[in-house]
Amino acid sequence: MHHFDRSFILPRRKGSRYACAPTVALILALSACTPALPPSSGHSAATEAKATPSALQATFDTAEGIERIEPGLAAAQAWLDAGEVQRAGNVLEKLADIPGTIDQQARYAVLMAETRLAQNRPLDARRWLERGAEGLPASWQARRLRALDRMAEANTPAPSAESVALPDPNTHLVATLLPVSGRWSAAGQAIQDGILRAYLEESPSRRPTLRFFPVTEQSVSVEAAARDALALGARSVIGPLDKAMVEKAAAVIPPSVPMIALNRIDQARPGLFQFGLPPEDEARIVAQQAMTLGHRRAWVIAPASEWGTRLHSAFGDTFAAQGGEVLHITRYDAAQSDFQAALREGLAQASDADMIFLAAFMFQAQLLQPQIRFVGGGNLPIYATSAVYGQPAKRDGSTDLNGVRFPDMPWLLSADPAVAPAVARLQALGIDAYRVWHQLASVPQPDAVSMVGATGTLALDSDGRIIRRDLPWAHFSDGTVQPGLPVEDAPVTVP
């Protein structure tokens, strides 16, 4: 069976009921997520539970082509559960060259990992588990976690005296509070991938004990997960993701246990470090870059929504504080497709503008940019946030977004172009959350924390907020994203 998902899985310590959750996410400025992919319609746990291994094997033997996948996976699962490792391996070997769906690939990887563990080949098992869990049905998640447990028992790195700058891996437990169900689950899964990637990039002697405490909207509250983590000796916490959950966790976790929250809340307190990807940060960076290039008069185009208000306010406040002026704000209805009337009125009100700040997601930007040109605003450079880059750019020669400039995180601009930008951004957030923990653990004064990370250049402000202060720039050109600003973006002459 062909596999193409590339994720990273963590060996975890023996004896805990918590482990790693699956992967993949989609986010729109950390305000909404798409649900995880559903399981294949041909997969039925109830049917498998009633069938014997021999019966499932017989069904597999008589099937052909892709119709062999479901009975094959069911047969391999049944043989493994019966302790018949060789028979399971034989079935899986026959499935190896049959292309399957994402969820079939995920189940196949779990079964291959179980087979390799039973054959005392933990490194091979790890390679299968590193393929991730995109599309893995919920009923299979517990099975995958058990495989992680067994892999950890067989292959937990021995502690070393190589490093003294960081806490002893045997004694420092870092707990992560990430969602595994509900509207935030997909985002939590991608962030976990990033945390695990950063973890595995380190030498074993520098790794803490890392445990995942799943948070669900139905059964495991964030308060309960936080208390469990503290009871098991957690000395640092990464998460949660949802703003309301951050507030609840912060009320349970004492200031003596550093907490790197993955969202921002209104309250600040000692020991709470707030790290997220608020779109306002990028709007401020756009304003600063525009001023650097000599722009002083802006026409702002933003949706008539809370998100749009946040962006145009952040841009406008920063732009004005540095001497710029917002001539007009055009608010558009994101549910519509014809914006010409609003754009004509806006251009008339901002006839002296020397730039446009466009707050839009990719789909709206693809509609707005041609209409801006059509009403006569095509001579104005357009600056946006990374929201305009919401899916892999198509090399189709499209000019809908030509010239639109936007800042984005270093990780995204160097990531695999086949990976959805929304997923890559969340993975980068996980990478930097883990690296920030490392810095907090190794410096005597937390306010000295600064780093060039996967999400940008990071610094800590006086309220414990981790701020992205600098981002690389990119622009669209003929359907592709190109690094840097267009060549025509030399500083303009300021009158």
Can you offer a commentary on this structure?
The protein is α/β, with parallel strands linked by helices. The protein has a domain at 280-408 and 473-483: 3-Layer(aba) Sandwich (Rossmann fold), CATH 3.40.50.2300. It is 41% helix and 15% strand. An eight-stranded mixed sheet has the order 2-1-3-4-5-13-12-11, sandwiched between helices. The chain has a four-stranded parallel sheet with strand order 7-6-8-9, with helices on both faces. It is globular, with a radius of gyration of 25 Å. The protein starts with 44 loop residues before the first helix and ends in a 12-residue tail after the last strand.
Task: Name the assembly state.
Answer: single chain
Report how far apart the termini are: 64 Å
- Runs in which pLDDT lies below 50 for 5 or more consecutive residues are 2-49, 155-170
Instruction: Report the CATH architecture of the domain at 280-408 and 473-483.
Output: 3-Layer(aba) Sandwich
| Number of distinct beta strands | 15
Instruction: Determine the CATH superfamily of the domain at 280-408 and 473-483.
Output: Response regulator
- Helix segment tally: 16
The CATH topology of the domain at 280-408 and 473-483: Rossmann fold
Mean pLDDT, all residues: 80
Supply Rg: 25 Å
User: Beta-sheet strand percentage?
Assistant: 5-15%
Strand-pairing-aware structural class: alpha/beta
Which strands sit side by side, in order, in the main sheet? 2-1-3-4-5-13-12-11
**Largest sheet features:** 8 strands, mixed
Helix fraction, binned, reads 40-55%
Shape: globular
Query: What is the level 1 CATH name of the domain at 280-408 and 473-483?
Result: Alpha Beta
Pfam family, one: LppC
GO molecular function: enzyme regulator activity
Organism: Candidatus Macondimonas diazotrophica
InterPro entries: LpoA, Peripla_BP_I, TPR-like_helical_dom_sf
